[in-house]
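Carboxymuconolactone decarboxylase family protein: structure tokens wanted.
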Amino acid sequence: MTDFTQHDLSSAPEKSRPLLEKAQKEMGMIPALYSVMAEAPGVLEAYQRLHELFLASSFDAAEKTVVWQAINVEHDCEYCVAVHTAVAGMMKVDPAITQALRDQQPLEDDRLELLRQTTLAIVRDRGRPDPAVVEHFLEAGFSRQQLLDIVLGVSQKILSNYVNHLADTPIDDAFKRHAWTKGAADTDAAA
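Answer:
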């Protein structure tokens, strides 16, 4: 792939420096994804803001994990699957949920499985899922806001997944134990 600089506070474009400082302060590190995104300050800023907005969405921690990981796995983003496995752990999401998502297996919870299937339909059909999918989602008790919140999650993940594909972003040491490869059965999330 294209060689991208992994910027730090000294090499980043001026407009990216406060965004990297924010990450350093909040996370205790500058994730490799952010160091690559720093090349384009608007991309880094958009990603951070979309992340904040999705965290404040109508979904609980397990539901956020389902949306994020369904997209990450569908897009074959090894970096984001590893990171969101760690994030799910920090958010106290049941490891069985994370493992099923990593393995592309149906979720035991019917509501979460419906959320996963609807998210995948939105991604695969480029925002034009079959009307029956949307109707089933709403009839199951999800709201129109939540339907749109899936689109917010897709927007966030497209930014990170596509940047990681272009840059072949290396997985940070903090997340290497959660490494994932599509199609490989693994037992990471239960570890």
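The chain has one domain: 14-178. The radius of gyration is 17 Å.

Cheers.
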